[in-house]
Amino acid sequence: MLLAFDTATPLVSVALHDGERVVVEHSSEAPMKHGEHLAPLIARALDDAGMVRQDLTAIAVGVGPGPFTGLRVGVVTARTLGFVLDLPVYGVCSLDAIALEVVETGAAAGSFLVATDARRKEVYLASYDADGRRLEGPVVTKPAEVATDAPVAGAGPTLYPDDFGNAIAPARPSAGWLATGVSGELVELLDPEPLYLRRPDAVAGAPRKPVS
Amino acid sequence: MTDEPLVLGIETSCDETGVGIVRGHTLLADTVASSVEEHARFGGVVPEVASRAHLEAMVPTIERAAETAGVALSDVDAIAVTSGPGLAGALLVGVASAKALAIGLGKPIYGVNHLAAHVAVDQLEHGPLPEPCLAMLVSGGHSSLLEVSDVTVGVEPMGSTIDDAAGEAFDKVARLLGLPFPGGPHIDRQARSGNSVAIDFPRGLTSRRDLERHRFDFSFSGLKTAVARWVEAQQRSGATIDVADVAASFQEAVCDVLTRKAIDAASSRGIEDILIGGGVAANSRLRAMAEERAGAAGIRVRVPRPGLCTDNGAMVAALGAELVARGRTPSLLDLPADSSQPITTVVA
Lengths: 212, 348
Ligand SMILES: [Zn+2]
Description:
- The complex is a heterodimer.
- Chain A is built from five helices and nine strands, in the order βββαβαβαββββαα.
- By secondary structure, chain A is α/β, with parallel strands linked by helices.
- In chain A, strands 3-2-1-4-5 form a five-stranded mixed sheet, with helices on both faces. Chain A has a four-stranded mixed sheet with strand order 8-7-6-9.
- Chain A is globular and about 50 Å long.
- The radius of gyration of chain B is 20 Å and the shape is globular.
- Chain B starts with 5 loop residues before the first strand and ends in a 23-residue tail after the last helix.
- In chain B, the strands form two sheets. A five-stranded mixed sheet of chain B has the order 3-2-1-4-5, sandwiched between helices. In chain B, strands 8-7-6-9-10 form a five-stranded mixed sheet, with helices on both faces.
- By secondary structure, chain B is of the alpha/beta class.
- Chain A binds chain B through residues 33, 35-40, 42-43, 53, 68-69, 72-73, 75-81, 83-85, 194, 196, 200-205, 208, 210-212, and chain B through 41-44, 46, 48-49, 51-52, 54-55, 58-59, 62-63, 73, 88-89, 92-93, 95-97, 99-106, 175-176, 225, 228-229, 232-233, 332-337.
- The complex binds zinc ion.
- Zinc ion is lined by residues 114, 118, 139, 141, 278, 311 of chain B.
């Protein structure tokens, strides 16, 4: 039983996959509250599926890119569960989970983009071919610099309709599709390491100003 | 439930990733990974740098603690974790990891108050806490006087800093004197060869008027400014600055106010035991002065060894073990990390 979750966007999404299909999927829209929602959703998913923790065989986690705080909640949860239950832990680019859903649901006819909210008036962006293979990215960029008429999934088109006029579903990565991707070997497996794409904001201490 | 519960504690409120394992009052492991060196060039803790370091250190630190303790994690009775106060993003890494442990092991989780944990840690060294006791917690993040009747239930704040924390003052003065971050140990070392009455630095909130409103509160911002002014005046007049004398005089002013107010607070409530915790409790002058003055007032002083005074996982585990032993209700899995968790909330 594969446990998958994603915390790279305001949506906290959790799913269990038995190798054939998604057995249960729970999610909650929880901006800034990933830490409060993820663990109860995991516990509920196990309960609803009539499973116990010993039934788990692998963990998959969306590693972003996305806001750092939420990413860390997902990644540290995955690593800790993997350690304590002695299970393999796979990272998946969260934009790839969105792309897989686009392809599998036929939301785009050809190549397309995925753009999610990177805050600070920027987006996380990756481009995909018609089969969902990632061509470029993920990168962090200003929407105006990559404005396009091509189909764009993710929250980008909602946030920047002038730059991304051709919106397609879905807007958020789902743990169900993430699990399907891992289970069916349809996505690239990464280390469970956040895709930060930005360095920490920190400046070396400025010379002290005199007080008098 | 056993009165000697096996508890794993996680602490990530600032820049140390701490994991401790205790059995009752017995310390089995106290493993700490620090990102302090990554912050040194910034002259203070950078939250995002600390959070990233916590994520990388978390699982290896849990693993090392379990190895050191020689216990199987499946044998622990409960997980305890600092849920606040502290840096929000840093706390969140520890809390999320603790929840994953709780789910993965099928054990209860206690989200505990960092300050109460600083108090509870002394049990690992000196046995059960005297009840009540007066706790003085002094570090880079806190300067508080607390009345502790039962560390698992309620901690009553009596006073705290109205501006800088005591440890912050040490860091700032160290920087002013060209000493490295964190400043506490360097000031302490310099002060040993200095004259503590060379410069008469101000004692914050000790005037009669201040004592009316802020009897048990601290202020270190004025002291820091006074040191800066003094150093600048010396520089302007071309005089060489005796770093040891400045360090000793500054340290004397801090320790004077801290010990005076702690003893006054204890005496005012008829409390006969003072417990000192937090990183500044490692300061040798503070320890000596507290012993001497409290002794004269008929008050006993307990200070854990320096390694247990700074932030660590053992203190969280120690409080967790006490909560389990006293049958307190655990937290829920939706436990938040609360950067400003009030001291009166021992378990979130
Ligand atoms: Zn502390």
